[in-house]
């Protein structure tokens, strides 16, 4: 008899997780092992994101396994090399060879769409991670997403920036990929809806060593607000060069960024001082603090929880919860239980994680943050 | 298990068609195409866009290979000096431009969002459960047709002129052969095949985006051709199989030994690079060199 | 459009690119092949300089040391690979250099991983200059590059090695007949082009970031500069680098609405930035197949 102990932890959600972690482990000898297929960019252009997702996943895995002595979970991780072709190789292995009952992945839209189509064609549920292209809606039954699609973040960030500054002239600079361009489209709509004007829209190619020409173009019509989609090294270079060219100073801190936790450690503190943005884990509540504590013992006290870590953590939790709910490791049963699991679960990336008919997050709450002296701090809009 | 075997068989078939096309350009005509991935992408997008707009798949495949062939001929324009190095540089740049067009012309290509839901041929007529096998059979049938057609071409008078051009450019020029137009035709024929392979790729995966067509694909196709052997069209399939198996071997190896994915990804490419260099130095004609007498010029009858 | 800023950016770009393009053209004129691995020499130079400075060495020691080390690596590469196929047809050398490029890039990736690095932890001091902004780093890059190019010019025109190199580029058979030790000269040339490319790579890294894409991102512009200047002409390559630098910065900054049949402001999409150098090169190849400056060889 397998005890559905993870479910219990959430059904009695008044009880906090640490209490369960202290319950003594029961007999583990006849434990059932459930494989969770994970397809991620461990290498290539999205490698940094993928590695953080794994960090979050492993943290969650330890927690659920401690809670559920009679059903142990195991991650089967495949690298998609940030390439759709390698992603297809990987999903075939997970589905056809490893025969996993559920797949979590991937971090990019270009790899998520073809691989999820394949999982679904084999009637295996596919939980998308940070792929935010609205096209994921077309995948159909069996696809679920941990994060909301572009329209939510794009609209929220534009509105936040305009309300915060009270200004109307907006410049947009985004990475030329599905993530950046998708957000740009939504930002444009939101700027117009809020009575503003997009004076320049610039795309840059991620991973290039020089963005001065792009920045010159962005700033030439003198925007009062900049909405920038960047991460890691790209963010570092953009803010650095904008600063060196004397352009950053012209917007006086009105530089807004989705998911600023992704850039805070990569940027030069002086160059990204006062950069603001929206990030997941709006309330920074109890679940977030638990994850923080777990990660501090795992990787050290200077850890910054970005959305990749949060999403990876939530993905494993919600999947384990679905298995527990279904009380079965059968693909169809897990798939059927996932909507319920999303509804019960209280996540790090969002407290309310319930999904709509397409399996996409119904709503997404963000918190506003500002970078001060190289640290991310909560921020209240004016 | 059958599924994954069929999957790799289909992929190998698709890349074999491209490799035969590339080997024709390099091995038979002596032209360097370092922008293979660009022509692959043209085939994929042409066919994908047309079929999404309602054209039948066969028309998409045809158009995909024709457009790729035409663009192949076009790259000859800036390099009329027939300098092999300029050809090479131009093809690299062209592949980059093609990728940027796919990425930036959203109105046509949907940019980085890629093409979703490209139809698969045969799905309508083949009963469920046999569709992947049917697609695999289609790919291999096309591969065999391409191979036979090129072999016929190589042993034709045109093929002999091509070889003359490859071996002794100046001599062929002095004999009054229209070297430039011969090279353009050879490029176009190779481009047809590479485009066809790209189109099949699009219809097999049913989703393509610019991320599918990065410069690494070019290098991998070159490794396939080099291993197979310069000018030996049939052996290209061996090169394709070896490289495909090698690139995927670490997926299965890592389940046995713990390996750092970052290190593995780099080392895989280190090995491919080393292999290309080793072949150039030690086996310049590949592991399976073209049998000289099969392509002997002049009046020696082809065959044994 | 800020003209001063465009000029500053172009000059800095040209001074980095010139050091790399120079080697491309030199290898081409002496060894008769387009070295697709040349960008990776710049990559190695940047990583070595970074590693040395991270180990505690002063930057102004780390960069030259990294360049010298890369020079030796280039000589070793020649001995291990290109020397073995010296007489092979051009297309074989091309394929070899493509394999080499993949090899070198991924060896660097295996050692340093795929994350990128920067030399400095703080912002470079920037000051306003005639309506544009220039950083102290950029001034240093310009000065270092101009000195390096001047040194090379003197070497080419005033030393025995320079004369031997020119003789070799003009006619290797004749040079051999005149008793020039060809292989020794070739080694010296590899050392020079290796260290110059490394210097160029380190300067790019100094100003921006050091990432695995550095090699690939400079190779097309470097080829374009070499072709523009007329393959074989070192001075032409330097001028070519200046033109590419200007083109890359101006094409995107220009409002093309002055062209007929346009309405409203018309800018070229910044997404096409990477194609600018290549398109300029193609235009030159069509219009003036021998390059803008009709380079012969090794002048």
From TrEMBL, chain A:
Protein's GO biological process: amino acid transport
Pfam families assigned to the protein according to its UniProt record, in alphabetical order: Peripla_BP_6
Keyword Transport: yes
Top-level taxon: Bacteria
Secretion signal, residue range per the UniProt entry: 1-28
InterPro entries reported in the protein's UniProt record: BCAA_transport, Leu-bd, Peripla_BP_I
Gene3D superfamilies: 3.40.50.2300
Keywords: Amino-acid transport, Signal, Transport
Leucine-binding protein domain boundaries: 33-349
Homology family: Belongs to the leucine-binding protein family.
PANTHER family assigned: LEUCINE-SPECIFIC-BINDING PROTEIN, PERIPLASMIC BINDING PROTEIN OF ABC TRANSPORTER FOR NATURAL AMINO ACIDS
Protein name, UniProt field: Amino acid/amide ABC transporter substrate-binding protein (HAAT family)
Species name: Aquamicrobium defluvii
Lineage: Bacteria, Pseudomonadati, Pseudomonadota, Alphaproteobacteria, Hyphomicrobiales
Automatic annotation (TrEMBL), chain B:
Membrane topology listed for this record: Multi-pass membrane protein
Cellular compartment(s): Cell membrane
Transmembrane stretches, start-end: 6-24, 31-51, 57-77, 84-102, 128-150, 184-201, 265-282
Highest taxon in the source lineage: Bacteria
UniProtKB keywords: Cell membrane, Membrane, Transmembrane, Transmembrane helix
Single GO term (MF): branched-chain amino acid transmembrane transporter activity
GO cellular component: plasma membrane
Pfam families: BPD_transp_2
Chief location category: membrane
InterPro entries in UniProt: ABC_transp_permease, LivM-like
UniProt cross-references to PANTHER family, sorted A to Z: HIGH-AFFINITY BRANCHED-CHAIN AMINO ACID TRANSPORT PROTEIN BRAE, HIGH-AFFINITY BRANCHED-CHAIN AMINO ACID TRANSPORT SYSTEM PERMEASE
Name of the protein described by the UniProt record: ABC transporter permease
Organism: Aquamicrobium defluvii
UniProtKB/TrEMBL annotation, chain C:
Record has Membrane as a keyword: yes
Cellular compartments per GO CC: plasma membrane
Protein name: Branched-chain amino acid ABC transporter permease
Molecular-function GO terms, alphabetical: L-isoleucine transmembrane transporter activity; L-leucine transmembrane transporter activity; L-phenylalanine transmembrane transporter activity; L-valine transmembrane transporter activity
Membrane-spanning parts: 6-28, 59-78, 90-113, 133-156, 185-204, 210-231, 238-258, 270-287
Annotated organism of origin: Aquamicrobium defluvii
Topological category with respect to the lipid bilayer: Multi-pass membrane protein
Compartment(s): Cell membrane
Main location: membrane
């Amino acid at each position: 008899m397998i005890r559905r102990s993870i479910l219990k932890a959430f059904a009695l959600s008044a009880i906090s997780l640490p209490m369960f972690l202290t319950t003594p482990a029961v007999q583990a000898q006849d434990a059932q092992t459930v494989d969770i297929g994970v397809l991620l960019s461990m290498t290539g252009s999205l490698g940094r994101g993928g590695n953080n997702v794994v960090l979050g996943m492993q943290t969650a895995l330890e927690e659920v396994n401690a809670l559920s002595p009679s059903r142990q979970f195991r991650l089967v991780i495949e690298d998609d090399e940030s390439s759709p072709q390698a992603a297809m190789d990987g999903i075939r292995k997970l589905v056809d060879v490893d025969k996993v009952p559920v797949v979590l992945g991937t971090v990019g839209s270009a790899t998520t769409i073809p691989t999820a189509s394949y999982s679904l064609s084999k009637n295996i549920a596919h939980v998308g991670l940070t792929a935010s292209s609205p096209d994921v809606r077309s995948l159909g039954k069996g696809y679920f997403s941990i994060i909301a699609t572009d329209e939510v973040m794009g609209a929220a960030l534009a509105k936040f920036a305009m309300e915060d500054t009270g200004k109307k002239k907006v410049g947009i600079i985004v990475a030329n990929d599905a993530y950046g361009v998708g957000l740009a489209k939504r930002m444009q709509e939101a700027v117009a809806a809020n009575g503003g004007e997009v004076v320049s829209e610039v795309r840059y190619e991620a991973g290039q060593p020089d963005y001065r020409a792009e920045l010159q173009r962005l700033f030439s019509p003198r925007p009062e607000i900049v909405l920038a989609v960047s991460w890691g090294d790209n963010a570092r270079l953009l803010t650095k060069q904008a600063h060196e060219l004397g352009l950053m100073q012209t917007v006086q801190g009105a530089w807004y960024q989705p998911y600023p936790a992704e850039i805070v450690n990569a940027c030069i503190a002086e160059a990204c001082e006062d950069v603001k943005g929206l990030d997941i884990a709006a309330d920074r509540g109890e679940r977030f603090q638990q994850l923080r504590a777990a990660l501090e013992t795992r990787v050290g006290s200077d850890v910054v929880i970005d959305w990749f870590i949060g999403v990876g953590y939530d993905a494993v939790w919600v999947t384990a919860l679905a298995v527990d709910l279904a009380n079965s490791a059968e693909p169809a049963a897990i798939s059927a239980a996932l909507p319920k699991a999303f509804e019960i679960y209280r996540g790090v990336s969002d407290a309310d994680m319930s999904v709509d008919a397409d399996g996409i997050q119904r709503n997404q709450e963000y918190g506003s943050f500002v970078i001060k002296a190289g640290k991310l701090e909560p921020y209240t809009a004016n | 298990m059958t599924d994954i075997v069929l999957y790799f068989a289909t992929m190998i078939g698709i890349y074999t068609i491209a490799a035969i096309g590339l080997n024709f350009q390099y091995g038979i005509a002596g032209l360097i195409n370092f922008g293979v991935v660009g022509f692959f992408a043209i085939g994929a997008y042409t066919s994908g866009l047309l079929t999404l707009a309602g054209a039948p798949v066969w028309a998409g495949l045809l158009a995909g290979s024709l457009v790729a062939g035409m663009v192949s001929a076009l790259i000859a324009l800036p390099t009329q000096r027939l300098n092999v190095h300029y050809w090479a540089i131009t093809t690299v740049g062209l592949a980059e431009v093609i990728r940027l067009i796919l990425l930036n012309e959203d109105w046509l290509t949907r940019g980085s969002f890629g093409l979703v839901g490209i139809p698969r041929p045969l799905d309508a007529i083949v009963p469920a459960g046999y569709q992947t096998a049917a697609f695999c059979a289609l790919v291999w049938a096309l591969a065999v047709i391409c191979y036979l057609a090129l072999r016929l071409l190589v042993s034709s008078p045109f093929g002999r002129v091509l070889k003359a051009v490859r071996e002794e450019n100046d001599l062929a020029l002095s004999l009054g052969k229209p070297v430039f137009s011969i090279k353009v035709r050879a490029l176009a024929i190779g481009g047809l095949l590479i485009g066809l392979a790209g189109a099949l790729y699009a219809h097999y995966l049913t989703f393509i985006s610019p991320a599918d067509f990065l410069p690494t694909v070019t290098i991998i196709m070159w490794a396939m051709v080099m291993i197979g052997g310069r000018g030996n069209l049939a052996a290209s399939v061996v090169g394709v199989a070896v490289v495909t198996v090698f690139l995927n071997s670490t997926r299965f190896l890592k389940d046995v030994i713990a390996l750092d994915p970052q290190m593995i990804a780099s080392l895989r490419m280190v090995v491919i690079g080393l292999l290309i260099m080793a072949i150039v130095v030690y086996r310049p004609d590949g592991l399976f060199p073209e049998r000289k007498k099969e392509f002997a010029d002049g009046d020696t009858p082809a065959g044994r | 459009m800020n003209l001063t800023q465009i000029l500053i950016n172009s000059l800095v770009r040209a001074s980095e690119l010139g050091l790399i393009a120079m080697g491309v053209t030199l290898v081409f004129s002496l060894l008769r092949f387009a070295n697709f691995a040349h960008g990776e020499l710049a990559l190695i130079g940047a990583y070595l300089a970074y590693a040395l400075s991270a180990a505690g060495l002063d930057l102004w020691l780390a960069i030259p040391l990294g360049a010298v080390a890369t020079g030796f690596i280039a000589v070793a590469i020649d001995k291990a690979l290109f020397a073995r196929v010296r007489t092979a047809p051009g297309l074989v050398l091309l394929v070899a250099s493509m394999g080499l490029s993949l090899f070198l890039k991924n060896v660097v990736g295996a050692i340093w991983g795929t994350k990128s690095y920067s030399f400095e932890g703080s912002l470079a001091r920037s000051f306003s200059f005639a309506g544009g902004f220039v950083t102290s780093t950029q001034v240093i890059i310009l000065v270092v590059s101009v000195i390096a190019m001047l040194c090379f010019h003197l070497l080419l025109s005033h030393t025995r090695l320079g004369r031997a190199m020119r003789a070799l580029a003009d006619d290797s058979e004749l040079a051999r007949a005149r008793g020039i030790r060809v292989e020794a000269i070739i080694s010296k040339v590899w050392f020079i082009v290796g260290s110059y490319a490394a210097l160029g790579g380190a300067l790019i890294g100094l100003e921006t970031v050091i990432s695995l894409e550095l090699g690939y991102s400079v190779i097309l512009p470097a080829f374009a500069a070499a072709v523009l200047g007329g393959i074989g002409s070192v001075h032409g390559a330097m001028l070519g680098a200046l033109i590419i630098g200007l083109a890359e910065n101006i094409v995107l900054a220009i409002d093309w609405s002055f062209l007929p049949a346009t309405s409203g402001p018309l800018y070229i999409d910044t997404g096409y930035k990477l194609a600018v150098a290549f398109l300029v090169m193609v235009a030159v190849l069509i219009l003036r197949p021998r390059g803008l400056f009709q380079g012969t060889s090794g002048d």
